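Researcher: I'd like a structural prediction for the single chain below. Treat it as a standalone chain; there are no partners to consider.
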Amino acid sequence: MKKADVDTFFRRLSAVNPSPKGELDYVDPFTLLVAVVLSAQATDVGVNKATAPLFKAADTPQKMLALGEARLKRYVRTIGLYNTKARNIIGLSRILVDRHGGQVPADRAALEALPGVGRKTANVVLNVAFGEPTIAVDTHIFRVANRTGLAPGKTPLEVEHGLDKRTPARWKRHAHHWLILHGRYVCKARKPLCADCVVRDLCRYEAKTVE
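Model: Treating it as a single chain, here is the predicted structure.
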């Protein structure tokens, strides 16, 4: 995709949704971090159902440690891989208390040192909680970037680097959410809604559902 087309791509997504937001419920960096850790291989809807009562009981690292792993599991047992995720949340809560004064660090290396936090999760926290122009490549973004020709790549990291290089600076702050929402609701995996797509004329996908 040409540089001018990339700019047009994001300009059109921005026109449709000027202030995009993620669909996970949270109130601060810590609850965001917990929600994102829980969201791996799970739906945002499912995570929100679990975190609504959880965050009433424990919305800080200190309260999460007081809650304990066994009781935490009761709140998140409807979420896939909940045993591992509960263990990681207790582990990261302890590190936040012991090493960061109970605060979520605005630093990639420190975030990725937390249990259950990889590059994608760190990128989400840096972008959403701290306003960094990071792009977390999930399955939706990976599909959209490859299908449209926006930033083709064989791995999420390759796609991330491509998007970081090709996305104009003025669009980077919200690029993450525009691409996720576009992939979730329009550029779907099995049946993309090409007729409803505002960037279909820029898209390189050969199997469009409309001419």
